[in-house]
Amino acid sequence: MASQTKENYIKAIYFLHQKSEAISLSDLGQELGVSKPTANDMIKKLKADGIVISEKYKPIKITEKGKRVAASIIRKHRLSEMFLSQIMEFGWEEVHEIAEELEHLKIEKFFDRMDEILGFPTTDPHGSPIPDKNGNFNKPNYLPFSQVSEGSTVVVKALRESSMDFLIFLNKKAIQLGTEMKVEQVESFDGSYTVSFGDFTNVVLGKTVCDRLLVEVV
Question: Checking DSSP bridges between strand 61-62 and strand 143-144, what pairing results, if any?
């Protein structure tokens, strides 16, 4: 049975794999805030478990088994976030830390029941896809808002990054999933967007914000 620490490594390796198939100990250590020797010790254990392929002086690669295990952990996390948000009415900025604890529970029927109560959602409160029981992801092809042209109308569908600070910022701006926005102006100097939505007009969003909003053009 995997420990919480092991599962955190597996999840981190999976997310790093989304960026590059070749993962270094430095990448992993930086992602988890641990030293290279500490990361290397865990990699040896995960290799013995068949989660990763690792050879001296070569990049770390996640196995198919590792991907399935990671998808199961991610499924539990994102279902938990959705349950906390939709059923228990926590704010989307509050759910991550609680879900970090719940994702390590080993009672599969608990999450199956949670899934059923929620109506089998395909995304979490931040728009990230929830894997099915077989580890399959439905990954919509949304655009970063920063790639949308002036005059376009878009709907916010997901977030590329969902730190608490960013979510609190969006709360203050009254921006959430499903918000429809019209791009009034794109500033070529700094990449900021002037947008209108709902009762708000000429709201300026910096490039960092626009890079993190994933949208669908309507």
Answer: unpaired
Predicted confidence at residue 140, as pLDDT, reads 87
**Prediction pTM value:** 0.90
Which tens digit of pLDDT belongs to each residue from 7-42?
A: 999 999 999 998 888 899 999 999 999 999 999 999
Tokens of 215: 């949208």
First CA to last CA distance, the chain: 47
Rounded to whole angstroms, the Cα distance separating 148 from 102 reads 37
Distance separating alpha carbons of residues 87 and 142, to the nearest angstrom: 27
4 in Cβ contact with 104 (< 8 Å): yes
Report yes or no: 156 and 172 within 8 Å, Cβ to Cβ. no
Task: Give 94's contacts (C-beta < 8 A, 6+ positions apart).
Answer: 84
Query: What residues have CB less than 8 Å from 192, skipping those under 6 apart?
Result: 186, 204, 205, 206, 207, 210
* CATH class label, 4-62: mainly alpha
Domain-wise residue ranges, the chain:
4-62, 143-217
The pLDDT tens digits of the residues spanning 168-202 come to 999 999 999 999 999 999 999 999 999 999 999 99
Amino acid at 72: S
Residue 76: partners with Cβ closer than 8 Å, 6 or more residues away: 99, 102, 103, 104, 105, 111
Strands 143-144 and 213-217, by their bridges, are antiparallel
| CATH architecture assignment, domain 143-217 | Roll (2.30)
Distance between CA atoms of residues 54 and 44, nearest Å: 8
Q: Do 66 and 46 contact (CB within 8 A), yes or no?
A: yes
